Amino acid sequence: MGHTWLGLMARTPRNTLSADLIVRTALELMEAKGTDAFSLRGVAGELGVGPMALYTYFRNKDDLYDAVRDHLMGLLPAVPSDAPWPDQVRAVCRSLRLLMLQHPCLAQLLAGRPLSGHETARVAEGLLGVLRAAGFDAETAARTHTTLFTYVLGSTSWEIQMAAERRDPEAWRRLRTSMESLSARDFPSVVELAPELARTTGGDEQFDYGLDLLLAGLQLRTPS
Amino acid sequence: MGHTWLGLMARTPRNTLSADLIVRTALELMEAKGTDAFSLRGVAGELGVGPMALYTYFRNKDDLYDAVRDHLMGLLPAVPSDAPWPDQVRAVCRSLRLLMLQHPCLAQLLAGRPLSGHETARVAEGLLGVLRAAGFDAETAARTHTTLFTYVLGSTSWEIQMAAERRDPEAWRRLRTSMESLSARDFPSVVELAPELARTTGGDEQFDYGLDLLLAGLQLRTPS
DNA sequence: ACCTGAACACCGTTCAAGT
DNA sequence: ACCTGAACACCGTTCAAGT
């Protein structure tokens, strides 16, 4: 299996496999075929090895998921150092959102697994450092970090989900008809605001709107 | 298959199946074994029918997911009518969070599928109605609705995820050691705030903290 | 250590058929 | 309409074995 004429191997020769190569191949497949269609067997097939070859480098599928997530988190830019703290916070949140939009699988990788790994800690470090330098106490800094992180995660996951749905014509048609079937008597606000709701399911403006609400609330508690 | 002595059927006799019975059985299984372990074959087995029997009532697995989600959303209480609008908004967000905590599968059902169905529209209607009655314009009401919804979804999903991880001793141990292995030189804030971060990964206080930030920011934009 | 190959216990879904 | 049974094309993971 895997031999062609002249004895060329269709599979990768021995000792060319590595954790990094597997992670990059897994990421490619997730972005090409979607996170749900991703499988260990698919990665192994792409690399020309048996499924069990991957278990030399990763304990199981979740372990590979964590490695891909950490690989992506490593791509996050550093926090800008020369700016007022609200702008620094904005920059961190925006760059995390942008990374999620560029790599939609990251949303599922962050939501479905607990945080661990150095790259992920680096992100927390950046945000916590900004908040501490701004003068917030330990408890407020921690609470604010968790709030901002979950807001970015929730809003961007939703945005990605909706964008994927819009690309599937069948699902999009069913969503439209289900919206249009709502009676204006029972759902007056939903029917009236349907165009606005459709417009606000994603985009930079919508993300910044919620982020600005959080920052405005936070600035009311500014210590200095 | 399914016959016992005396001819008693181990499977449900004909015409006792219904969409509602399937939804309730699916929900039970999701909550007993976890959402990930859920399968159509499992539901069919629990009901004593073949896997294909379910396809009479649901087009596919996603269709059943949507039905379970709508069933759960139907359990949400109505918006309190005699209260200032910030309290009404708080009530809607808190009751959605409570429902998600009581039925952890709801988090995945909301995050993984697009919104559709009357029960889900009912929730949007309640929140939008409150915001419109408070005097916000169409665009602001829609943006605020999406912001609040994604905040509740993100923060509560995260809370549920972390609580599940804490229950798994193996995963919990690995998360502790990965936290403790971080050097105080490279991650000063994370190491210093480790106890606060652990405390703020969930709970009513953490949820209300973020919700109050949003509401404080929103009240700065109050029209009247 | 690194990788194979067969096997186990599963999946969702299609298709043809029975009542 | 309602449900069965066999089959298809998959999964993740274990286990024993080879180099």
UniProtKB/TrEMBL annotation, chains A, B:
<dbReference type="InterPro" id="IPR050109">
    <property type="entry name" value="HTH-type_TetR-like_transc_reg"/>
</dbReference>
<dbReference type="InterPro" id="IPR004111">
    <property type="entry name" value="Repressor_TetR_C"/>
</dbReference>
<dbReference type="InterPro" id="IPR001647">
    <property type="entry name" value="HTH_TetR"/>
</dbReference>
<dbReference type="Pfam" id="PF00440">
    <property type="entry name" value="TetR_N"/>
</dbReference>
<keyword id="KW-0678">Repressor</keyword>
<dbReference type="InterPro" id="IPR036271">
    <property type="entry name" value="Tet_transcr_reg_TetR-rel_C_sf"/>
</dbReference>
<dbReference type="InterPro" id="IPR003012">
    <property type="entry name" value="Tet_transcr_reg_TetR"/>
</dbReference>
<keyword id="KW-0805">Transcription regulation</keyword>
<protein>
    <submittedName>
        <fullName>TetR family transcriptional regulator</fullName>
    </submittedName>
</protein>
<dbReference type="Pfam" id="PF02909">
    <property type="entry name" value="TetR_C_1"/>
</dbReference>
<feature type="DNA-binding region" description="H-T-H motif">
    <location>
        <begin position="39"/>
        <end position="58"/>
    </location>
</feature>
<keyword id="KW-0804">Transcription</keyword>
<dbReference type="InterPro" id="IPR009057">
    <property type="entry name" value="Homeodomain-like_sf"/>
</dbReference>
<feature type="domain" description="HTH tetR-type">
    <location>
        <begin position="16"/>
        <end position="76"/>
    </location>
</feature>
<keyword id="KW-0238">DNA-binding</keyword>
